[in-house]
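Forum: Protein Structure Q&A
Topic: Joint prediction for protein chains with partners

I've read a bunch of threads here and the consensus seems to be that you should model interacting components together rather than docking separate models afterwards. I'd like to see that in practice. Below is the full input, 283 residues plus whatever partners are listed. Could one of the regulars post the assembled result?
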Amino acid sequence: MILLTRKAEFSAAHYYWNDAWSAAENQRIFGKCANRNGHGHNYTLEVTVAGEVNPQTGFVVDLKQLKDVMHSEVVDVYDHRHLNLEIPEFRDRVPTVENIAVSAWERLEGKIHGAKLERVRVYETPDLYADCFGADRSGSGASR
Amino acid sequence: MTVTFTRRYKFSASHRLDCEALSPQENRDVYGKCNNPHGHGHNYRLEVSVSGPVDRATGMVINMADLDALVGQSVVERFHLANLNVDPLFQKEVPTTENLCRAIHRLLTGSLPAGKLDRIRIEETENNFFEYAGEVALG
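Posted by a regular:
Agreed with the consensus. Here's the joint model:
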C-alpha cells in the first residue's frame, strides 16, 4: 500500500462564538478569537489517500482527479469566504481547525475514486494543525 | 469523530552525548562530534499532538491556550536556554533526542486538561527528527 498526499491552500475568515453562552463566557473561553469582527488565516489542506499502485499507470490515484476534487469540494467552497457566515456546516459548528478538518473530511469522503481517504490535515498556521482520520479510526498511534 | 490536534513549539538547549558505561574512546567512536567535551546546542522544534473527540460546544479537542500554558511551564521553560545534561531527567540517561522525546512524553502524559497525548515529535535540526507515541507502533 502507498500513501499519497496532495496539498492545496485557501484563505478564509472566521471567529469563535457559541450562541449558548454569554458574551463574557465566549470571551473567557475563546479570547481574541471571539472578536465578532472576525480575523483570517491562510490555511493549508493536506489530503492523504491510500491505495495500491496501478501496474499500468503507476498511479495510486490520478493526481489531477485528486486536485480537482480537493478544489471543487473544499478549496473553492472555503476560499475567500467567511466560514461562520457563508459556509452551512459552520452555522452550528465552531470553525476551529479541528472542525475544519472534520468538515473537509466529510466533504471529501466517497468523492475520490480508486483510493481510500486516509487522512485530512488542515494547517491554520505553520505551528498549528489538526488531523482527521474519519469516524472508523481512532487518532491514537496504535491504530495508525 | 476523533481528531488529532498538533501544536509546534521551540526551545534552544545544549547537550553532550556521553555514556558513563563506555570508555572515552568508545564514547568518541559512538557519538563522534556529539561527544566533544564542552557540549553543543540545537534549536529544537517540538510538536505535541493531542487526540480526542471534538467538544461540541467549543469545537476543540483541547483549548490551545491551556495546552500552550502546560507545555510552556512544564517543557519549554524547563529546557529553553538550558543544558540538558544537568537536568535531573538526564542524570542516568544520555540526552539524545530519542530520550528527550520519551522524557517530554512522561512530563506531559496524564497532565493534559483534555484529550489524550497522541505523540511527541522533536526536530533536532531540519534534517533529523524523532517521534514517540508511548509503547505503541508508530504509523
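The helical segments of chain B are 24-31, 64-79, 97-108.
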